[in-house]
Write a structure and sequence with these properties.
With 400 residues, the chain is α/β, with parallel strands linked by helices. The chain is 43% helix and 15% strand. It contains 14 helices and ten strands.
């Protein structure tokens, strides 16, 4: 496990930040950062505390850091208002959706010079064709995490593992519709970006068939459950697997042959940001090679900036889970933003999946409670009748 960078590295970062620091406003401002849970190095286990180092480099800027657990929950928070954010970290398809709905500010790249270091393969992506609204943060793959102590390797043949009744009650599933549907779509040989109602219904039925095998629908809760062995099988992100395997070496990772989601998480400034320039300075800090390398040592995710690998632990930089070969990556598929109608249909089907058989279960429980109540009352009156009879007999025997 890599420890804090050298004093020279820190001095270099601080020195490189001086010109931008000098141009910042004299008054202290606070930027509101909205990121995924456990998605930035925070000083634990000897890693760099990224936010603390940023605030040292920019004394006039403070960071108020908040987290979300899915793109959908982040989108809902932005859409409904009530909170003001300066930086958000949406995934590729969500960036596309936010651009289409005019919910992002175009970035001023004069404040983000490190964006010039972005690898060519990540420039002008389909979700942001002109590269105006986003800067890539990390990229990675969705695969299957499983516990080798309990899961037979012969069963690890594809996404079908999540439907294997042998492991009923020990299987976790994503608690968001886009990732969950994609798994069912891969399993059924469907396009993960389909909006065809019939195909969505097929995927929903596949997920419903899994429901009775699932221990829980989770996002960030996966860490505790898989690390402690409470669950044995779960779909999740490769970078998080590399974090979890440090706590539980029995965990392994598999990318199914039938395909998997290949994603990019980006950094954006949402409409309404009150401190756009300071937000862009934070973005520039995050993607500097030194900071990016240190951050990804902690995260385990893959960097879209090859220059950062120089500052990354060689075990991470050379790990095939973090950086799969080209043949493996060819099986990866990226999400595209669904239309409002497609999103609504998927959400409706997802709700139906999660509540499937809920009414039946409720009535079974209610029936069970009623039976227990009847038995209790029968016993109660039976005992009371016997006590009354016993008292009458006692009275008769003691009568003079």
């Amino acid at each position: 496990m890599k420890r804090l960078t050298s004093v020279l590295l820190l001095l270099f970062v601080l020195f490189s930040a001086l010109p931008l620091t000098a141009s910042a406003a004299d008054e202290t401002v606070t930027i509101n950062v909205y990121n995924w849970g456990q998605y930035i190095a925070d000083g634990t286990d000897g890693y760099m505390d990224i936010i603390d180092e940023f605030e040292k480099a920019y004394p006039n800027i403070k960071v108020n850091y908040m987290t979300f657990d899915s793109n959908e929950s982040m989108y809902t928070k932005l859409k409904t208002g009530g909170s003001s954010f300066d930086i958000i970290f949406p995934s590729d398809y969500m960036v596309e959706k936010l651009i289409a709905e005019d919910m992002l500010e175009p970035l001023d790249f004069e404040n983000i010079p490190n964006a010039a270091l972005l690898d060519d393969s990540f420039r002008n992506p389909s979700y942001d064709p002109e590269g105006r609204y986003s800067v890539p943060y990390t990229w990675g793959c969705v695969g299957i995490i499983y516990n080798t102590q309990y899961v037979n390797e012969a069963d690890v043949t594809g996404w079908e593992l999540l439907w294997n009744p042998t492991y009923a009650g020990k299987i976790l599933m994503f608690d968001n519709p886009r990732d969950a549907f994609a798994i069912a779509q891969f399993e059924e040989g469907l396009d993960i970006n389909t909006e065809d109602p019939e195909e969505l219904a097929v995927a929903a039925e596949k997920l419903r068939q899994e429901k009775n095998l699932v221990q829980a629908y989770v996002m960030d809760q996966i860490f505790d459950k898989m690390e402690r062995g409470e669950a044995w099988i779960a779909p999740y992100y490769a970078g998080d697997y590399l974090y979890m395997v440090q706590e539980n070496p029995d965990l392994a990772f598999y990318l199914p042959e039938e395909g998997f989601n290949l994603f990019v998480d980006a950094i954006c400034v949402p409409k309404g940001s009150e401190h756009k320039k300071e937000a862009e300075l934070f973005i520039n800090f995050l993607i500097s090679p030194e900071i990016c390398g240190e951050n990804l040592d902690y995260l385990g995710y893959s960097s879209p900036y090859s220059a950062a690998k120089e500052y990354t632990d060689p075990e991470i930089a050379g790990n095939p889970v973090a950086y799969p070969d080209e043949e493996t990556l060819a099986r990866g598929k990226s999400f595209s933003a669904l239309s409002e109608e497609g999103t609504q249909k998927m959400n409706e089907l997802w709700l139906a999946v999660k509540t499937a058989d809920a009414s039946t279960t409720f009535y079974l429980i209610l029936t069970g409670v009623a039976i227990v109540a009847v038995v209790f009352l029968w016993v109660f009156f039976k005992v009371r009748k016997r006590r009354r009879k016993a008292r009458r007999c006692q009275k008769w025997h003691t009568k003079p």
